[in-house]
Specification:
Layout: E1 12-15, E2 26-30, H1 35-44, E3 50-55, H2 62-68, E4 74-78, H3 85-97, E5 101-104, E6 109-110, H4 121-127, E7 134-141, E8 158-162, H5 173-188, H6 198-209, E9 214-217, E10 222-225, H7 226-243, E11 248-251, H8 257-268, E12 272-275, H9 282-292, E13 297-299, H10 301-306, E14 318-320, H11 321-324, H12 329-341, H13 344-351, E15 361-366, E16 376-380, H14 381-395, E17 402-405, H15 412-425, E18 428-431, H16 438-448, E19 452-455, H17 457-463, E20 477-480, H18 487-497, E21 501-506, E22 513-516, E23 532-533, E24 544-545, E25 549-554, E26 561-562, E27 568-574, H19 585-591, E28 592-593, E29 596-605, E30 611-616, E31 620-623, E32 626-629, H20 630-640, E33 651-658, E34 662-669, H21 676-689, E35 700-703, H22 717-727
């Protein structure tokens, strides 16, 4: 029988065992606990008396139920809503007095992949009212976060990570969640795969998926199989090696087959790709080239002619791919043959690609500069491999799935998710050079049955006009980021296309993905039958953190820790967090402390682990001592002004210095109208009628021809502030 299968600790990794008290009188509250996990935990406890706590009627694995019915096994049952808290406390106290270790057994639950916990927040709240010390236990199955290019892990390869004992006032849901996230981050960081170099991972990805997956260049609908992409990149890599001795190589191309091949070629040449933001100003571009120490640039003739305003370097520094690739057919054929016959490790050795990358720089990106001068973000091999693993393991996509790649390659989401992710995971990729040509994008989505669409709220607005519902029928995930998702856009998109917009959250410094909403899992059974169900989508939030991430919240002014459920400055920790800005120790020290990254965003976590972003600190104004979020004010203004159906941004709220109250809000609008002073007065009355606090209402309106936005669709805060200050 399966129940008689011998269980050993051979494949179990134990972290934090020093946190396990030597006696009893405490409760172990695990993130999850299957039957064999339970047997291993009993072995770890080395024969100490155990009392199990189970929700009355909980759906348990049949072997777990049999285990609980044995004569020498003791269990307590409770029912939320029926069992009074005093009775629950007394039962736990009696068990604790006897020196037992109390273990909670979670019911079978429908959850997202690799969840923080399988226990709903309301149940956790009840369990934590027991008034006894609680030991958090994070149970991590290695197979839950394994890359497709790794070996297969067995069910027995598990990590038990014991947290510090929570006692007294620490025994609360916020503290438990924070501890569990820390344990998850530490457990994920144990993976040896995180030391793999990006080049080595790409070689394995191309070898594994070469004949199965393809890239479609949506501009001319040319289709190239992964193995042909690989061979072309291998041939181009040899040219790059001969052309420059510098560490970094610039790439000036939009999303497309050419951009993909160039990025892969630079990595396979053992160098660092730098996708330059060709929409930035001259000073920003020249600064990026200088700071990146770049002397060769991969681009295309047609792009050079199109981007007349770009500060192009001398022609001798340009590698024009459409000129050299047609002359390389023999070299491409040679590398196609070699890539087929040589095993991945030998091919890597031939190319000089190390298996280990670790904390060496793999990619250089520059921040959008939406609120200041662009910063050089040097992402390591570990950062990128971690984020590909985190994003991929959470989405659980299959090899027949397709991604739409139309975000700029200098955009961190466009880079990680539409370059490295599909190659390593084995997904079809359909590219297009612009995210704004939505009718063409809709045609590509329909024709190639695209399942994952990455966009921003600004670009999503354009789909609401002129795109048929049927065009997006194949979409499983419509993920948006870069800016806050207005509820008006989410509701309108779902009404038109029948697709939920899944808001995520990320920053260039986090490689970039950190949080994501996903479609809710299908229930395993009725709640009355004892099954648990944990939502994975909550509108207004940016979802759960990805596997292996830790979160903490602090006071924005003092950096003193506050509970996760309280609004404050968001800090992140994880293998995908960068290690510093390029040659900028001062600005690095401002945001990095002992591995924790200060995001600059204000937010909180709710009872079920969903993160809410309330705004960027730079997009708050302190008015008469009160912190006023610009984005919340903007959303109210959109409704008050009837702008819900607009496809482009029509307003922006900016703070300017004010002698009386510290700051005042200015409304920038591109909408035509009458006298500005009269219109802002009318708006004031409308907003007051809706219950908006007087301090939150803009003091002045300034008309502009267009609201400044960046290429990613983000608001160009810096230019908005210049306009507001000039007009105030």
């Amino acid at each position: 029988m399966a129940s008689e299968k011998p269980v050993t600790l051979k494949d179990l990794t134990i972290l934090g065992k020093e946190n396990l008290p030597s006696g009893g009188g405490f409760m172990i509250l695990p993130s999850k606990l299957g039957y064999f996990d339970l047997l291993r935990l009993e072995l770890v406890l080395e024969g100490r008396p155990v009392v199990y706590v189970v929700k009355k009627g909980a759906a348990l694995h049949p072997l777990l139920r049999v285990h609980l019915e044995r004569e020498n096994v003791h269990a307590l049952e409770f029912a939320i809503g029926e069992t009074a808290v005093p009775a629950y406390r007394q039962a736990l106290a009696d068990a604790a007095k006897g020196g037992a270790v109390i273990i909670y057994l979670p019911a079978e639950a429908a959850t997202i992949s690799a969840p923080m916990t399988t226990v709903p927040g309301t149940k956790l709240e009840f369990l934590l009212k027991g008034e006894i010390p609680v030991l958090p236990l994070y149970v991590h199955s290695r197979q839950d976060t394994a890359l497709p290019i790794e070996r297969r892990y067995s069910d027995a390869e598990v990590i038990f990570n014991f947290g510090k004992l929570l006692q007294g006032s620490e025994v609360n849901l916020a503290s438990y969640q924070e501890s569990l996230l820390m344990l998850a981050e530490e457990s994920f960081g144990e993976s040896p795969t995180l030391d793999m170099s990006l080049g080595y991972a790409l070689i394995h990805g191309f070898k594994k998926h070469g004949t199965r997956n393809s890239v479609v260049d949506g501009k001319d609908e040319k289709i190239l199989r992964f193995d042909k992409v690989f061979a072309t990149a291998l041939a181009l890599a040899q040219v790059i090696k001969r052309e420059t001795q510098k560490q970094r190589v610039g790439i000036i191309l939009p999303p497309g087959l050419g951009g993909l091949i160039c990025n892969v070629a630079v990595v396979l040449a053992g160098k660092i790709p730098v996708n330059l933001n060709f929409t930035a100003g001259r000073a920003s571009i020249e600064s990026a080239i200088r700071r990146g120490d770049i002397d060769r640039f991969l681009t295309a003739d047609i792009f050079v002619r199109k981007m007349q305003s770009f500060p192009w370097p001398p022609s001798k520094q340009l590698i024009l791919i459409e000129r050299i690739l047609p002359k390389m057919k023999a070299s491409i054929a040679k590398w196609l043959l070699l890539s087929k016959v040589l095993p991945a490790p030998i091919l890597a050795a031939v190319l000089g690609i190390s298996r280990k990358g670790g904390r060496k720089e793999a990619l250089l990106l520059f921040t959008s500069g939406s609120s200041g001068e662009p910063k050089g973000v040097a992402l390591t091999h570990r950062n990128i491999i971690a984020n590909v693993t985190q994003f991929g393991s959470r989405l659980g996509m299959q090899t027949n799935d397709s991604i739409l790649g139309c975000l700029p390659l200098f955009h961190s989401f466009g880079c990680t998710v539409t370059l490295w992710f599909p190659i390593i995971y084995g997904l079809h990729l359909v590219t297009y050079p612009s995210p704004m040509e939505v009718k063409k994008l809709a045609q590509l989505i329909e024709k190639y049955r695209i399942t994952l669409m990455i966009s921003t709220p600004t670009f999503l607005r354009s789909y609401l006009r002129g795109v048929n519902r049927e065009s997006l029928a194949s979409i499983k995930y419509c993920v948006t980021g870069a800016e806050k998702l207005p509820s008006t856009v989410a509701d309108a998109f779902e009404a038109r296309f029948g697709k939920s917009v899944l808001e995520g959250y990320g920053l260039t410094e986090t490689s970039p993905a950190f949080n994501i909403n996903l479609p809710d899992p299908a229930p395993l059974g009725d709640e009355e039958a004892g099954y648990s169900w944990l939502p994975s989508h909550r509108q207004g939030s940016v979802g759960h953190v990805l596997p292996g991430m830790a979160v903490r919240i602090t006071n924005p002014e003092t950096n003193a820790p506050v509970p996760l459920h309280q609004s404050g400055m968001i800090w992140f920790k994880g293998a995908n967090v960068f290690e510093g800005y390029l040659n900028d120790a001062k600005r690095s020290a401002e945001v990095l402390q002992n591995g924790w990254f200060r995001t600059g965003d204000i937010g909180r976590v709710d009872l079920d682990g969903f993160l809410y972003i309330e705004g960027r600190l730079s997009r708050f104004s302190k008015i008469a001592g009160e912190m006023v979020p610009h984005e919340t004010v903007e959303e109210a203004l959109v409704k008050a002004m009837g702008l819900e159906s607009e496809t482009v941004r029509k307003i922006a709220v900016v703070g300017v210095p004010d002698i009386e109250k510290g700051e005042a809000l200015i409304l920038l609008t591109s909408m035509p109208g009458g006298p500005e002073h009269q219109e802002i007065l009318d708006l004031r009355y409308r907003l007051l009628d809706k219950g908006m606090p007087p301090l939150w209402i803009p003091k002045k309106m300034i008309r502009v021809s267009d609201i400044p936005v960046l290429a990613s669709g983000k608001l160009d805060v810096q230019n908005c502030e210049k306009i507001a200050k000039a007009g105030a």
